[in-house]
Amino acid sequence: MRPTLSEQIIGARRVLVELAAPEVTDSYTQEQIAFAASALEHAAARWSEVLPDLVTDIRVLEEVLGMEPAVLEEAVPGVVDYEAADGYHRSLRAQLTDEIMSGSEQSPAVRAYLADSTERLR
Predict the structure, then answer these.
(1) Domains in the chain: how many in total?
(2) Which residue, 50, 24, 54, is CA-closest to 37?
């Protein structure tokens, strides 16, 4: 498909940087345009990694929660469907949250997952 999603995102960034930004004189708005352009550049470079990263985290969460790994085609109809994968991931995160909020002692797997999640945010 042309233009690709990356090309569309890059095109939107170019409109901001080359057409909109030169017309803006307010420093706050200039900063916001620069931030938006940076976010679009990041999205163009990484969008294709979102689903594989999500599937990896699903597998880790299933293990942390002591669940048998689901056949993703059953758990997530059409594994290429980001919305379905995201919904399943949210349900696993909700189960993890329930386990954490229960007040019972956290398993080593839960503690390791939380530590890894915190480290990835840095």
Answers:
(1) 2
(2) 24
